[in-house]
Amino acid sequence: MKGKKRKKELKTLWSRIRYFVRDWMHVLAGTLFALSLIMTVLGVIGIMTPYRDLDPPLKDIIKPLQEPERYDICMGLGGSFLLLVSAYYFFVNLYRRWKFNRLFDIDSKAKFLGNLNELEELAWNLSTKHEMMVEEKKREFKIR
Predict the structure, then answer these.
(1) End-to-end distance of the chain based on CA atoms, in angstroms?
(2) Which of 33, 85, 116, 132 is least surrounded by Cβ atoms within 10 Å, i.e. has the fewest?
(3) Comparing C-alpha atoms, which of 24, 25, 69 is closest to residue 46?
């Protein structure tokens, strides 16, 4: 009996995590995009600029990166990779939101029914808020 209860709790925890990530993907992707951009810029500055040519505020930031381990190269390459991945998720999410809003702002029931499958898929990809918006619009048009 204990094993079944434990599996149920883990399943619930996993579904909570999954819904959290789905609902906050635009914030997570935007934050990761900004942080990876900063990492890339600092890495490139560390790689391209000799330590002696830097102004005092940048010297304090770049000096630890140019120590024997060469973290500037790791930051430049890792930041570039993260920048590509996070930019993809960020801009795909923005595109989905734009497309959802464009398809959702239709006053005709016939056009809404034609776009319903695509709207439901976009809502599922975006967030639970968007799913509730589609359900509300379906109730408004009296669609089952």
Answers:
(1) 39
(2) 132
(3) 69
Task: Identify whether the C-beta of residue 86 lies closer than 8 Å to the C-beta of residue 27.
Answer: no
Measure the CA–CA gap between 28 and 122, rounded to whole angstroms: 18
How many helices and strands in the chain, by DSSP H and E? Answer: 6, 0
Give Dmax over CA atoms of the chain in angstroms: 71
CA 120 to chain centre: 20
pLDDT tens column, 101-114: 998 888 888 888 88
Give the torsion through C-alpha atoms of 20, 26, 27, 33, to 10 deg: 130
**Rounded distance between C-alpha atoms, residue 40 and residue 61, angstroms:** 14
Q: Which two tokens stand for residue 103?
A: 């398809």
Helix/strand/coil (H/E/C) assignment for every residue in 80-130: HHHHHHHHHHHHHHHHHHHHHHHHHCCCCHHHHHHHHHHHHHHHHHHCHHH
